Structures are given as C-alpha cells and as structure tokens.
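Q: Here's a chain of 313 amino acids. Please give me its 3D structure as tokens.
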Amino acid sequence: MKKNSKKKYLFYAILIGLILLIKGAVYSDISVEVLKEKYANEHSKFVEIDGMQVHYRDEGKGMPIVLIHGTGASLHTWDYWASKLKEKHRVVRMDLPAFGLTGANSNGDYSIENYTNFLTKFLHKAELDSMYLVGNSLGGNIAWNFTAENPEAVKKLVLVDASGLPTNKPQPWIFKMAKTPIVNSMFLYVTPRAVIKDNIEQVYEDDSKISEDLITRYHEMALREGNRKAFIDRAKTDFKLGDNSNLEKLKSIKNKTLLIWGENDNWIPLDNGKRMDSLMPNSKLIIVKNSGHVPMEESPKESLLLFEDFINN
C-alpha cells in the first residue's frame, strides 16, 4: 500500500512539474501594434502588397542597395551594414512575409516562386529598377532567383550563405519539428525562449556574441501574431532544392556575383558555397573566418568590408 502511495505521489509530482514547465513556455501572440512601438523607428514605412502591410526601411541616397534577410530573421539583421552604407547609398530592406513586423501571407504560399514575385512587387512599389542586390540564406535564394529572371535590374549580386542547393547536413531540428503533426501544433503555443536561443547558437559560431537583447528580438518577432503558423507553413513548403531547373538557373546568371560564406556555417555548409561558385559563371567566393550562418550579423565589420570592396572595384 505504501509503495502504491509513493508511486502515486511521484506521478503527481512529475505531472505538476510538466505542467509548470509547459506553462512557463506558453506564450501568447504579440500584436503588431505592440511590436511596432519597440521595433519600428522613424525610418520604418509600411506598404500594402498582397493584402499584407509590409514593413521596410528606406534610408540614405545614392546607388540603391537592397538587403534581404533569411528564415526566422528580420530587417534588423542588417542593422550594422545599413548604418554604414546609408552614408553613400540608398539602403532598402524589408521584413519578408512570415517574418518580422510584416507577418503572414494571407494565401499561405511560401514557395520561392511566390517570394520572388513578392520581391518584384516590392521593388516596383519602391520604384527601384537598378540596384546592388544582397540576400542571406532564404533571402539569398530569393535574390538569385530574381536575378536570373531580371538580370538587367541587378548591377551586382551578393549572396551571403545562400540557400538553393541541397546540403550534406541534416535539416535543423526546428524545421523537422515544424513539419511533424501534433508537435507543430504545440509550437503555436509553446515557444520557449530557450528554443530561440538554441537556434541562434546554431547559426552563430561564437556564442559570446549573442546578447540577451538579440535573443529577445528574435523571440518577440517569432511571437508576432501569425508568424508561428506562417513558420510552420513555410517549413512544409517543398523548395525543390537542387533539381535540374534550379541548377540551370544558377548557371544562367551572368551578373557579377560575390559569395560571402561563414567558414563554420552549420545550416548551409561551406561546401554549398563552393558548389554554388562552381555553377555560377561570374562569381567569386570569399570565406569569413570564425563565423557561422549570418556573418553580416555575427561578423559585421569583416563581411561589410568584403561587400564594399566588391561594389567599389
């Protein structure tokens, strides 16, 4: 009888512990209006595209530079680059659909084709027909697809750890989770700060560069109303990585292209950069030492210098 009582108390103790653990990881959506107060500034603008209020910033004057972020990020990932480049250039960056203050796309289509169409519409609204085009990760994939279709609009192309080719690495666990039924439903409510921190640690090589403010920004942007569902929908999208049409598209890009790659990228490894460089007829690959998947954020000075040398020469 006593053994049964002990088992029962142990069961209840574990159950209560799990409830408290889950409760501490449950976060409600944050309204875009609340986030605007913290993450929009005097340079922030909003333009309607496909029913979305797209958040973007347009700063400086001169030859335009368009910066496109990657999965889970926002236009803030380019803060350092933008702060320096706007002194001599017009710098335009946006929150892609599914991310940042822009939020979910009403049609739920997160294919590269739809993202490329979105970029085309955005550039038209911003009255941009000639630019230096820069993209990181997913943003890089969008950038090179756009360039393949609109080569005359891109003066020079810069791809920072860009996606678009299959990797020899297993898919990051958060994408696997987003594709798993039931588990992905929990993600709509249970989104621990620790999960976001772990993700950032995966894309950074040097964890000492990860600040609490950085984690907070990524976490709060993930909690923007609609973004968690959008992340799940995007993760389930088949991007057809590495099919023949994809490879031929890369080969067709004649624009001068700089490939900037973090030496220790755990999401899209350096081998992908080398293969992309071998496919593109007018490209140059430069490796950023001691850096991961987001060198423009983790190694901003080094990566910006590479970019400036490229566009100025």
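Q: Can you summarize the key feature?
A: The first strand starts at residue 44 and ends at 49.
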